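User: Before I run my own analysis I want an independent prediction to cross-check against. Here's the chain; please return only the structure tokens and, at the end, one sentence I can use as a sanity check.
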Amino acid sequence: MLTAYAAAVAMGLSLSAPAAAVPAKAAHKKTAHKTAHKAKPAAASKPAPEEPPTEKSEAAARVAEWVAMSGDNGKYPYIIVDKQAARLFVFDADGKQLGDAPVLVGIAVGDEATPGVGAKKLAEIGPAEKTTPAGRFLAKFGRAVGKERVLWVDYYTSVAMHAVVTSNKKERRLQRLESPEVDDNRITFGCINVPTAFYARQVRPLFQKSGGIVYVLPDTKPLEEVFPRLRLLPYLNSAAHNAGEQPVAQG
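Assistant: Structure tokens:
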């Protein structure tokens, strides 16, 4: 069955590795009266400084702490998507944060997908139905329309995570990602758009083999309603304290 959101990702960008430049061989001349000079070693290029991690919202910080302490992710890497902050945070299976990036989410504010929306054509989807549902999802890579591989967050409602779609210039999706504002990051039919380079460097390598867990934070629902086990966090903290776990030395 071809799904509505899946049709949208067919217009996405595909990545291709740039061809490596092949240096030409330098011709060396020798004379009887001159000694060849040794070439000076090229100055080592300094790696670009890494940007400090973005501070999480209170809700994102609570979910990150709960997942790390409870092991709710199991053996999987995971991503926390903060819709209100228009940002995602990527973690490995051990709970180490690997990076964060801005995201684009559904136009409509809301935490549930309309029943049957995945079977609709794009033109049939109303403005209020263009939501990114909140919840805990087991996400895996799969094919969408046009044979594009995407990370399916919720296959049955056709919500996927993929590199930012730039085919409709009027939507200015790249500019929206780069904007410091968060209100303009609501533009998709429900899918989660990620910067192309970040998607290729962080999301795809981490999730392409076995998938992972995606936690999408709510817009309007209470956090504990979407993640009921979050209520256990105080007890987890108390248990850790009673176990006598030592704090980590900061430097």
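Sanity check: The chain has a mean pLDDT of 80.
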